[in-house]
Amino acid sequence: MKLNLIALSLLALPALGQADTELDTVVVSATRSERSQADAPVKTEVVTRQEIERTHARTLTQALENIPGLQLREIHGKSGYELSLQGLNSDQVLVLIDGLPISASTGSTVNLSQYLVGEIERIEVIKGAASAQYGSSAMGGVINVITRRTQPGLRGNLDLSVGSYGEQNDAGRALAPGRSSGRAQLAAGNANWRLAAQAEVLDDQGFALDPAGWSRQGDAMRREQYGARLDWLPAAGLQFWLDGSRYLENDTQRYQTYAPPKYIPQQKQEEITRDRWVAGGEWRFAGHGRLSGNWLHEQYDTRSVAQANGALTGDRRARQTLQQASLQLDLPAWYSQLWQVGIDLRRDTLAQLNNGYSELQRSGMAERESHELYLQNDVFLGDWLELVAGLRAQHDSDFGGHAAPKLALKADLLNTAEQRLVGRASWGQGYRVPNLKERYYLFDHSALGYMVLGNPALQPERSNSYQLGLDWHWGTTLAVQANAFYNQIRDLIQVDQDQATVVQGVAQYRYENLANARTAGLELATQWQALPTLALNAAYTYTHTRDEQTGQALTRRPEHIARFGLDWTPRTGSTLSWRTQWQSRELVSSASQAYSPAWSKSDLSFNQQLGRDLTAYAGISNLFNAQRDFSDANDFGPLAGRFVYLGARYQWGAGSTPGKETP
Q: How far apart are CA 305 and CA 90, in angstroms?
């Protein structure tokens, strides 16, 4: 009976642009097929469009700030942020846009700040090994960004904001603009055709403790993102689409290095272009049946120009390309089972030049191909128990074959009119092939005294992940979640800081398979609708990590992370939101036992609706001005101090109401 209800609900989903339906939040990442969040056999956390607009997030980094257990940290030498999830680093967490990968900026790390959020409908977060569903790099979990779909009719929105870093503004004046942003979107459609286009700009002037000096603690950067999508719906259950986007970034770093007897001003200018094209189609047929396919081509270009005292010291260029073709078949319900089979074909290339000469540790261009086949069966063992079994077989052009299995079990332990208790348990094997940057790229930070060399001899990482959790809901008033996790990692890839070679005063490090490690911990979260106008949420994560060879903790993984949130609606059309993050101290160096101190940060945001289509908003990021000690190289507390901003959002037409978009 339950399988039939799920199949019927899936058929009712407005996934092909039909009228909106009031449904529970629908997620796709848990099983690569649509399920309500409450019924998903793998725990899925969701950042909704309402949350993004309520907190005024501008980048994917900001949108993910309040996910329990997720740590955001700066990418060393870059103007951006990476993540750590359950003690596994960003190299081991796969970031997807509508189920398809996005290029890494450094090593295997995706810079979360290089994706603006204007077209995001929701973000789904899966914790634990998901290689069986998504392949290499999904050892620690998946971040899947789901973009909005166009509805019939005409809609649009315009969003403008401006803010100040106070006395740390680059201009040195507290009332001068420190950062401004703009976003515009227009969409139109009928029963058969849909077209949407959008543009976003984020212009940050940077900030400094001493604006009159040369150095800038916060880089000046301009980020732009443009995109368009065309959908064709020729018949019921049939859809084709073409989606294109361009991301542009111009980043300027200014700092000083000491060359006795004086400091030398340094500047690094980085230009980034990412062009992304996706074409796809989907056919829904009898029952739960669906055949879907996607083709992705992404090109990521960077140019980095370094100067010392105004003289050119380096002109480095790199180009990555990512191509992937995917096909997935979901079979109709059969004997209480939902079968799924799919194939992914992928090709990566990398080229790097410095002053016109190749820097790759091999001639010409590096490339890699992989062919991956996955199979999944969702089995319903009565009305209260569900088992998902999955297996992915991968053949890599450089590393040969590998298989990654996964099992997930969900049980409705209690389901009454007032309460629901759901238990979930899963085990999965992870597998990550070192990418081309880790194997061949040269990360040159000579001006900072070091460089990191790729290592062609690297071997794949492997892992086992165990998750065990309970979700308890008391009507729509109270929800409590608890999840225990344990991850084992083999052949962990890290930069070998103990085997540096010094060449002309520059320390050279190399990627190595250094460690076998484990991470374990507990995640707790609760949401309480205390009053019709007041909602509270809180979360706490404990993470224990160990390098099994040295017995020491892994660096840059805090043991304790806590979050608190409050949303108050004092009157119709007004919302006041508070978000607080707290993080315990974290080990920075196992050799010197240096720690970064604990820190906390609070953000306040306010929205006031001025009529049906216009909303004014304001906010203060880092309300209490908590900022790291920049004289302490081991302090990784908040980078930017207090930031105050104002903005307005105008949206009109069909589908413009937040939360009414198609999944």
A: 26
- CATH tag for 2-653 (out of 3.40.50.1370, 2.40.170.20, 2.40.10.340, 1.10.10.10): 2.40.170.20
Mean pLDDT of the region 339-358 = 91
Centre a 10 Å sphere on the Cβ of residue 19 and count the other Cβ atoms it contains: 8
pLDDT band with cut points at 50, 70 and 90 for residue 460: very high
CA dist., res. 538 & res. 250, Å (int): 37
Residues 112/114/120/123 CA torsion (nearest 10 deg): -10
**What secondary structure does DSSP assign to 577-634, as a single string?**
EEEEEEE--EEEETTTTEEEPPEEEEEEEEEEE-SSSEEEEEEEESTT-----TT-TT
Q: How far apart are CA 23 and CA 567, in angstroms?
A: 22
Helices (H), 517-559: none
Radius of gyration of the chain from Cα atoms? 24
What is the DSSP track for 395-452?
Answer: EETTTEEEEEEEEEEEEEEEE-SSEEEEEEEEEEEEEE---HHHHH-EEEEGGGTEEE
Q: Residue 168 has what DSSP assignment?
A: G
Residues pairing with 571 in the sheet: none
Residue-wise pLDDT tens digits, 625-656: 999 999 999 999 999 999 999 999 999 996 44
Could you give phi then psi for residue 578, rounded to 5 degrees?
Answer: -125, 135
Rounded distance between C-alpha atoms, residue 468 and residue 464, angstroms: 14
CA distance 341 to 327: 9
Maximum pairwise Cα distance, the chain: 80
Residue 371 is which amino acid? H
Q: Is the pLDDT of residue 7 over 70?
A: no
